[in-house]
Design a protein that fits this description.
Helix content of chain B: 25-40%
Oligomer: heterodimer
Mean pLDDT of chain A: 93
Number of strands of chain A: 6
Radius of gyration of chain B: 16 Å
Largest interface: A-B, 39 and 34 residues
Distance between the termini of chain A: 30 Å
Structural class of chain A: alpha+beta
Number of strands of chain B: 6
Mean pLDDT of chain B: 88
Distance between the termini of chain B: 50 Å
Shape of chain A: globular
Low-confidence stretches of chain B: none
Number of helices of chain A: 6
Shape of chain B: globular
Strand order of the largest sheet of chain A: 3-4-2-1-5-6
Strand order of the largest sheet of chain B: 2-1-3-4
Order of helices and strands of chain A: HEEHHEEHEEHH
Low-confidence stretches of chain A: none
Radius of gyration of chain A: 16 Å
Largest sheet of chain A: 6 strands, mixed
């Protein structure tokens, strides 16, 4: 993938397919310690130990339409190729946590990419699932929560209306610019 | 921050009016393949570009959705357009420019953009770039 954020869109789909009611995306850019950490945590149906062992195998997938599933394998490869770390932890019917760590200034680390567009794209596929996005750059954190947006919009206006999605993209863009300036 | 929740409240009011006006009238449904293959091939900017253009041109009743792997990864990004009667047009190897053109010609003017749709001959897909 050309951007790390594209992995996030991809991996979050697993949470949706696992019927998660809530997904928490946490990004920490810590230049002082030279680390970039991406965590995707959901409260979906999780996996048992057996499945968890197979999940990083590219020739394992829970889908029945074909025999490969590359999402997690590609994300893992990206992290391990950048002096990083990668883990998937899960408990059946409780949670799944995917955590990818990168050496921030590693020459092979692709850019995080366009986060406003990434969040907008995620929301488009999330349905009623709540997304909480926390992005920390050094000491500053920006938080975005679809629950707050839904409270303003009420029942009738969908989160995925073109105008709302546009507003969300700009809102996140501004929020991130603010924490970058500090 | 310049972007405020108040602004969002305004969008909500506008939308509510639109929803009332539109009741019972369906428009096009756009479905974008957004699995590992689609994402890697550039589906995110394609989908967002289509939404931007729909809004910019003020086309009413269009819904944009995502789906998983459509099964022809080499042809991604794939965009399927369903008309209100349920007829499907499949656009393949999309990019932002093509997406804007499809919104203008297909979603606004109801003209299928033939050069970007998938062509099948004897059950085989013909590459639109080579045809």
């Amino acid at each position: 993938m050309k951007e790390l954020s594209l992995h996030i869109i991809d991996i979050a789909q697993n949470s949706i397919r696992a019927d998660a009611k809530e997904v928490q995306l946490t990004i920490v850019e810590n230049m002082l310690e030279n680390r970039l950490i991406i965590t995707i945590e959901d409260n979906g149906r999780g996996m048992n130990k057996e499945t968890l062992e197979k999940v990083l195998d590219p020739f394992y997938t829970s889908r029945t339409t074909r025999k490969v599933g590359l999402g997690l394998s590609l994300f893992r490869q990206a992290a391990l190729g950048c002096d990083g770390d990668f883990s998937v932890t899960s408990e059946e019917n409780k949670f799944t946590v995917v955590k990818a760590e990168f050496k921030y200034d590693h020459i092979d680390r692709v850019p995080l990419g366009n986060m406003p567009d990434t969040i907008a794209t995620m929301i488009m596929s999330f349905g009623d699932t709540r997304l909480i996005y926390r992005h920390t750059i050094n000491a500053e954190t920006f938080t975005f929560d679809t629950k707050e947006i839904k409270e303003v919009l009420g029942e009738e206006v969908p989160l995925v209306s073109t105008e709302v999605v546009q507003w969300i993209r700009e809102y996140i863009q501004e929020g991130l610019e603010e924490i970058m300036e500090v | 921050m310049a972007k405020t929740l108040k602004e969002l409240e305004e969008i909500r009011k506008q939308k509510l009016e639109e929803i009332n006006l539109r009741k019972g009238r369906d428009g096009y449904r756009v479905v974008v393949g957004m699995a590992t293959c689609g994402i890697a091939a550039g589906a995110r900017p394609v989908m967002l570009k289509m939404m931007e253009e729909v809004e910019a041109m003020g086309i009413q009743g269009v819904t944009v959705e995502q789906t998983g792997c459509i099964g022809a990864c080499r042809l991604e990004p794939i965009v399927e357009v369903y008309d209100p009667e349920g007829n499907k047009t499949t656009y393949i190897k999309m990019d932002e420019d093509k997406a804007a053109e499809v919104v203008e010609k297909h979603l606004r003017d109801n003209q299928v953009v033939e050069e970007y749709i998938v062509t099948m001959i004897d059950g085989k897909v013909i590459d639109p770039v080579e045809k």
